[in-house]
Amino acid sequence: xxxxxxxxxxxxxxxxxxxxxxxxxxxxxxxxxxxxxxxxxxxxxxxxxxxxxxxxxxxxxxxxxxxxxxxxxxxxxxxxxxxxxxxxxxxxxxxxxxxxxxxxxxxxxxxxxxxxxxxxxxxxxxxxxxxxxxxxxxxxxxxx
Amino acid sequence: xxxxxxxxxxxxxxxxxxxxxxxxxxxxxxxxxxxxxxxxxxxxxxxxxxxxxxxxxxxxxxxxxxxxxxxxxxxxxxxxxxxxxxxxxxxxxxxxxxxxxxxxxxxxxxxxxxxxxxxxxxxxxxxxxxxxxxxxxxxxxxxxxxxxxxxxxxxxxxxxxxxxxxxxxxxxxxxxxxxxxxxxxxxxxxxxxxxxxxxxxxxxxxxxxxxxxxxxxxxxxxxxxxxxxxxxxxxxxxxxxxxxxxxxxxxxxxxxxxxxxxxxxxx
Lengths: 144, 267
Hints:
The structure holds two protein chains of two kinds. By secondary structure, chain A is mainly alpha-helical. Helix content of chain A is 44%, strand content 2%. Chain B has a four-stranded antiparallel beta sheet with strand order 2-3-1-4. A four-stranded antiparallel beta sheet of chain B has the order 6-7-5-8. Chain B starts with 22 loop residues before the first strand and ends in a 9-residue tail after the last strand.
């Protein structure tokens, strides 16, 4: 999906617009976590819907994060001026970070699910392969 | 009573409708609301209204059969349908992704009949409002510089680590972690103040605001605002001003209008 958010206007002080055609990443938590829920959800399983949950929170005190900052600062020093790229800007929000960052701990399960769900057109080969491995492993489990 | 089509609404549902087909529910709107003519639901199925003669109508389409929902395209479709109504200025009560009922009669009897009054009240409250979401993120380099110049301990540690040759980086692994930790802590303190400043700047033009826990360390603010349609320009100007005033160090994004997901009463 290429919404307006895909166009970065770096270097300007303007607000970036993501209109109603916003990227899924900007609204996915709303779709899955907000909105009206009524008791009919008890019936949902009857029609075979898989309900996903998003749990994207700051991974508290993550070593990965610390190393990332340390590295960024190091690069900053070398660059001196403001033209360096720095870390990639995570405009896509949790979608990208969920899919591309190696995560660990309790969030892993949820993010794996999200990866499969949202990976879509952005999947790297590596991720596709690991998804395939997962599914083939599942198949083997079922067969055995 | 079943009303398969909204009066004067979409004609995209001209495919024969199976009254027995399971229905996916996107949300609820006023009965008689006009559906945007060209909006398609899950698997590009036509979107229709189910009405029970009360004040509300359910926005539905046939449920895709033979597979579980939850793919990216499904979420996009859910959002697309609701946003089509929002864009048309039609009040909508968005449902969380994943609601379905056995058939159109079930939507009428199990969803609408018992809840029509309550839905009607919520629609009344939401009428003429849209949700706008503001996400603000630090401009990484600018803020890292700020942190470095503002904290001698960080500056010193960073300087020391910079002099370590790359092949000896492993030896200072824990120092690098310490540096990153100090930066993260400082950033968190900054975020509290900066996030509040941004919130205070945007909130006056909104009827209500909900803040979310930022998902990443660089995030300053993630907040949704319920904004009256006639005050939307004012709100957007306020956000523009924030982006201009803080643009050197904070990137501000404005997302929406969205269905008022964050302002649906929880029960």
